[in-house]
Write a structure and sequence with these properties.
The complex is a heterodimer of chains A (393) and B (322). Chain A has 393 residues and is α/β, with parallel strands linked by helices. Helix content of chain A is 40%, strand content 18%. In chain A, strands 3-2-4-5-7-6-13 form a seven-stranded mixed beta sheet, with helices on both faces. Chain A has a six-stranded mixed beta sheet with strand order 10-12-11-14-15-16, with helices on both faces. In chain A, strands 1-8 form a two-stranded antiparallel sheet. Chain B has an eight-stranded mixed beta sheet with strand order 2-1-3-4-6-5-7-8, with helices on both faces. Chain B starts with 34 loop residues before the first helix and ends in a 10-residue tail after the last helix. The chains are: A alpha/beta (393), B alpha/beta (322). At the A-B interface, α3, α4 and β9 of A face β1, β2, α3 and α5 of B. β9 of chain A pairs parallel with β2 of chain B.
């Protein structure tokens, strides 16, 4: 297993190479550009046996991959921000056509005002698209998760696109040690087998037909069933990955939750900052734990319910704002909905927004949140709105 | 003497040689007299069974594939409206890679064809088409041009001719139908340095068929601009589709020509053109036109004929008769 110094952008490019992808279609956009460049470098040097389509837009990147995947190719692209939402029309279709396209997304803010910096507004737009969506917290995890994502996406119980989302700059541009795998061992884990319906003259099928009111609903419901299946499949794949390669992550990752009274729910790189804050708060005597959300779609309901059983208050740290919603944090909204049919089992929940447009998130900011959670636990009223952290007064 | 039977991908000498197998089934819900299906039927015969069709949103898609039915006997995909070029790029790239890697057999080449309307080509799909042509994907892109957005109910496109009534260029106190000149898609396609581009017309099936064969054999992207009369949108009797299509050629409104590796050729010379009035008088969409508008449309046709004569280097399309 070669140990390389890689940014997360480079790590996902290496993962695509080691997964023997057949077709790449990529369009540059900050902060995902270095991943597209690295893939081009692999192609230029013959290190990857893939067609690299120099598309003229992200919309065409997604469209070309739909065409390629529909023929049976293993496909990959990277993008961010405006690029991802420009792709969104086609990604909804990719899910509806049940094509196992995998994307790396270096999450970035959305205009206006223009910001090249990181937050999760882009991926939040794709929340309802029918795409298996992972948040990762390190370059190593990004590498491993791209490989896992192919296995989940290509599983006949799933057949959906998958996104591996990593924080723009904080992860995309930070170099970390990454243990990469040999292509042969990766392909043993994710064999090249076309498990989905494809366009083949030997057995002609029509893909992307018209769904009238007598059929459309059934198509959509099947996507929902596939999403539900994806939770189990993602767990199985992670378990198997752990057995074969010695690294596993879980669909949620608890930290100091055993005896916790209050908890944070965080995702992406800032879960690492939260971890440091939790350790410090523990030294100060606050019984706080952390759950890192690894899999956002499908939402790991049973796992979170189990972890938050008996917890007094959960503070959700979101990096996107759903404007005008009852709470701005998209994951906070999910968590609140999760308990809607059984409110008596619910912890109290507080929604926070952090790191919007790459506003700096310090350990102290999260300690401030933890102290607030402790006060909420003692009975202080939780405001009926999202609490913005680091916002100019 | 019996005529030699030809298989797909071979040129023919007359319409009796057009192969019998069909790759698009009847029973679809296209309007009576729809030009699209005369064209598609012949082009698929030229391409044969080893074909994948990419079909952006439009009339053809909605009338052939209402689930659980499909008229397509070859693999067919519809993704969206504006991305036919990009989807076909992906299909072609995947076929190439999977053949190289031994997943698909290299002995059976697969033709990739796009059937797109004028909206999906000259307007919303323009960028996607440009990318596909510029990158050199070996795809035959067929523009089925009925000169407006017919699927949504006759709205103007960048291909709607001067003077034509549509529901978004209505005839009112201020507007008198479309007032701009349509895009020249052949010249736009040629500007991408592609090996083959041609106009086709269902009134000339042998020319149409053979141009498809040339397009399929081209060493890169090929662009076929098909003239496709629409009885519903152009307001003529469905029995007159071929007559309208032929008049377009005989008036010089639709010159049948090709660009083949740098050389232009007019395939159906017209020594004496009929006046444009002959073409417009049988279509309700032009009924409102004033003498001044008709004169202007004649000028537009004259300019186009002059340009094409210049491209081939001699007068192949002659002056208006009379």
């Amino acid at each position: 297993m070669p140990r390389l110094a890689l940014t997360t952008n480079y790590a996902v490019a290496h993962a695509a190479k080691d997964s023997d992808v057949d077709v790449i279609a990529a369009y540059p956009i900050t902060p995902s550009t270095p991943a597209a460049e690295k893939l081009a470098e692999f192609a230029a040097n013959g290190e990857i046996d893939a067609e690299y389509i120099h598309v003229e837009s992200e919309h065409s990147a997604a469209s070309a991959l739909v065409g390629a995947s529909a023929v049976g190719a293993r496909t990959f692209t990277v993008t961010a921000s405006q690029g991802l939402i420009y792709m969104s029309e086609v990604l909804y279709i990719a899910s509806g056509l049940r094509l196992p396209i995998v994307l790396g997304v270096a999450s970035r803010a959305l205009s206006a005002p223009l910001s090249i910096w990181g937050d999760m507004h882009d991926i939040a737009v794709l929340r309802d698209a029918g795409i298996v969506t992972y948040f990762v917290s390190s370059a190593q995890e990004a590498y491993d998760t791209v490989i896992q994502a192919f296995k989940v996406a290509e599983d006949p119980r799933v057949h959906l696109p998958a996104i591996v989302d990593y924080d723009g700059f904080v992860l995309s541009h930070v170099t970390e040690p990454v243990e990469t795998l040999e292509k042969e061992e990766v392909l043993k884990f994710i064999p090249k087998k076309i498990t989905w319906n494809t366009l083949n003259p030997k057995n002609p099928i029509s893909m992307g037909t018209v769904g009238e009111p007598d059929w459309y609903y059934e198509f959509k419901y099947q996507q929902q069933v596939a999403m539900e299946n994806a939770l189990k499949v993602a767990e199985e794949v992670d378990e198997e990955f752990g057995k074969v390669f010695g690294r596993k992550y879980g669909v949620v990752e608890p930290f100091m939750m055993e005896d916790a009274e209050v908890a944070l729910l965080a995702y992406g790189a800032h879960a690492g900052t939260a971890r440091v804050a939790v350790e410090r708060a523990r030294k100060e005597g606050i019984k706080v734990g952390l759950v890192r959300l690894k899999l956002w779609r499908p939402f790991p309901v049973p796992h979170l319910k189990k972890l938050f059983d008996g917890i007094s208050v959960v503070g959700v740290l979101d990096r996107a704002m759903s404007l005008g919603a009852p709470r701005q944090g998209p994951v906070a909204l999910d968590l609140m909905a999760m308990y809607a049919s059984d409110p008596s089992s619910a912890p109290k929940m507080a929604s926070y927004t952090i790191g919007i447009g790459q506003r700096d998130v310090r350990v102290e900011d999260i300690l401030y949140i933890i102290n607030q959670l402790a006060e909420f636990a003692k009975g202080k009223e939780i405001p009926e709105r999202t609490i913005p952290i680091g916002l100019r007064e | 003497m019996a005529l030699k039977e030809v298989g797909p991908m071979e040129e023919i000498r007359n319409h009796m040689q057009i192969p019998r197998p069909e790759y698009i089934a009847g029973g679809h819900s296209a309007c009576q007299g729809c030009g699209h299906f005369v064209i598609i039927r012949h082009l698929l015969k030229a391409s044969g069974p080893n074909t994948i069709v990419v079909n952006p949103t439009g009339c053809v898609e909605v009338v052939t594939t209402v689930f659980p039915y499909s008229s397509w006997k070859v693999p067919w995909i519809h993704v969206a409206f504006e991305n036919g070029g990009a989807v076909a790029s992906g299909v072609e790239a995947a076929v190439r890679t999977l053949q190289r890697k031994g997943v698909l057999s290299e002995d059976e080449p697969i033709n990739v064809i796009v059937f797109a309307g004028d909206g999906g080509t000259v307007d919303i799909g323009f960028q996607s088409l440009s990318g596909m042509l510029e990158r050199g994907h070996k795809v035959v892109y067929v523009l089925l041009d009925n000169e407006a957005y017919m699927n949504t109910g006759i709205q103007r496109s960048g291909s709607t001719p001067f003077g034509a009534w549509t529901t978004t260029t209505p005839v009112g106190k201020k507007w008198k139908g479309e007032w701009r000149v349509r895009k020249d898609m052949i010249q736009i396609a040629v500007a991408h340095h592609i090996p083959y581009a041609a106009t086709i017309n269902p009134a000339y099936p042998v020319d149409m068929y053979n141009k498809m064969v040339k397009a399929l054999k081209a060493d890169g992207p090929a662009f076929l601009h098909a003239y496709s009369p629409c009885p519903t949108g152009w307001r003529f009797d469905p029995s007159k589709t071929i007559e309208v299509a032929r008049l377009a050629v005989l008036t010089g409104y639709w010159v049948l020509y090709e660009y083949d590796h740098g050389k232009y050729k007019v395939n159906v010379p017209v020594l004496k053109r009929k006046p444009i009035r002959e073409f417009i008088k049988i279509q309700g969409r032009f009924r409102h036109m004033t003498e001044e508008q008709i004169k202007r449309l004649q000028e537009i046709v004259d300019e186009q004929v002059e340009m094409i004569n210049k491209l081939v280097g001699r007068t192949v399309i002659g002056p208006v008769e009379g």
